[in-house]
Amino acid sequence: MKIMILGGSGFVGSHLARRLSRDGHAISVVTRHPNGARHLAIVPRVQIRHFDPYDVDRLDAELADHDALINLVGILNESGRDGAGFRRAHIELVEIAIKACNAAGVTRMIQMSALNAGQGISHYLLTRGEGEQRVRDSGLDWTIFRPSTIFGPDDSFLDRFAGLLAISPVLPLARADAKFAPVYVGDVVEAFARALEDRASHGQTYELCGAETLTLRQVVEWVAHQRNMRRLVIALPDALGRVQGKVFDFVPGKPFSSDNFKSLLLDSVCNGNGFDSLGIEPWGMREKATEWLNHTGHGRQARYQRFRERFGRSGGRA
Ligand SMILES: NC(=O)c1ccc[n+]([C@@H]2O[C@H](COP(=O)([O-])OP(=O)(O)OC[C@H]3O[C@@H](n4cnc5c(N)ncnc54)[C@H](OP(=O)(O)O)[C@@H]3O)[C@@H](O)[C@H]2O)c1
């Protein structure tokens, strides 16, 4: 199959492109940035397409010879605060993608969404729900995935907490008792790969949860433990958590936001796990993430350390 991935340069997209390449598919990864997907350039059968997916005419033309479109575009924070950024990423782009599929004669679409889409009060979840509805109304052969928080090497979940813990002995945590069923990125991309091959997935919405449910506090404390860091995690009452979100709304890069706080008011756990229907046994977070998390350092440094260890140059662990 020839498959176009919108948002394919990111964390999930990079794993997905590699996974689908191994199945022999030809993949077009769309990125808005010239160097956005450079790390995928060496993957067999992967082509990087540098253009803005909001450019309707360009997307129509680029999609012409493909068999399927996967939309992974999503944001956790917008630059403003009125929801317009979320609407643009989660609804307008979905509309553009559906139009492009119709123009190009592509009938298969897989949409990445999130658990609790359409519920609660956050712009993130509400726009996710509207985006899903556009897909359901599209007349295409669609599949929607709703994962809990996704973890994997270089994710923005465990890696982010590891980074925060490294710079502060105390971590004030909003919604510390919110529950998650963190899902391994390898299991998520396996679900996409199977859905592409399985007509029974057409018209289905799959919730995806890992094998283990944890509170946010448990996740953070476990990360600290893996990194041998003694840290104090302070659960903020909601009134303070709300204030934390409002303050961080104005911090460049928004490490946390009012909208994140609102999303956390709902537990990120499944009603029925879509992995069962797809014949996949998902990993639990603590069982899987020890593979990379208990190495000191993270990101590029950790990869270099793993390389050194593998080739016996770590000075201790051959
Ligand atoms: N990671 C998780 O824990 C998690 C959990 C549930 C759902 N999801 C959803 O899964 C999808 C993939 O997540 P991820 O962690 O891989 O995200 P990511 O690393 O941030 O990648 C998303 C990609 O989308 C593109 N993008 C971002 N904003 C865009 C915009 N406004 N317009 C067009 N393109 C845009 C970017 O590509 P370029 O900059 O190269 O164009 C980016 O590489 C997202 O929809 C996310 O909401 C993720």
Give a verbal description of the structure.
- This protein has helices spanning 11-22, 56-63, 84-104, 123-136, 158-167, 185-197, 216-226, 238-248, 258-263, 274-278, 285-293, 299-310; strands at 2-6, 26-31, 46-50, 68-71, 108-112, 141-147, 150-151, 170-173, 179-180, 183-184, 204-208, 214-215, 232-235.
- Helix 2 crosses helix 3, helix 3 (84-104) runs parallel beside helix 4 (123-136) and helix 5 (158-167) packs across helix 7 (216-226).
- It is globular, with a radius of gyration of 20 Å.
- With 318 residues, the chain is an alpha/beta fold.
- Helix content is 42%, strand content 17%.
- It has a domain at 2-149 and 182-210 and 271-278: NAD(P)-binding Rossmann-like Domain (Rossmann fold, 3-Layer(aba) Sandwich), CATH 3.40.50.
- Bound molecules: NADP nicotinamide-adenine-dinucleotide phosphate.
What are the key terms here?
42% helix; 12 helices; two-stranded parallel ribbon; disordered C terminus; 7-stranded parallel sheet; 318 residues; single chain; binds NADP nicotinamide-adenine-dinucleotide phosphate; alpha/beta; Rossmann fold
Please outline the helices and strands.
Blueprint: E1 2-6, H1 11-22, E2 26-31, E3 46-50, H2 56-63, E4 68-71, H3 84-104, E5 108-112, H4 123-136, E6 141-147, E7 150-151, H5 158-167, E8 170-173, E9 179-180, E10 183-184, H6 185-197, E11 204-208, E12 214-215, H7 216-226, E13 232-235, H8 238-248, H9 258-263, H10 274-278, H11 285-293, H12 299-310
Parallel strand pairs: 1-2, 1-4, 2-3, 4-5, 5-6, 6-11, 7-10, 8-13
Antiparallel strand pairs: 9-12
Bound molecules: NADP nicotinamide-adenine-dinucleotide phosphate (NAP).
The site of NADP nicotinamide-adenine-dinucleotide phosphate has 23 residues, from helix 1 and helix 3.
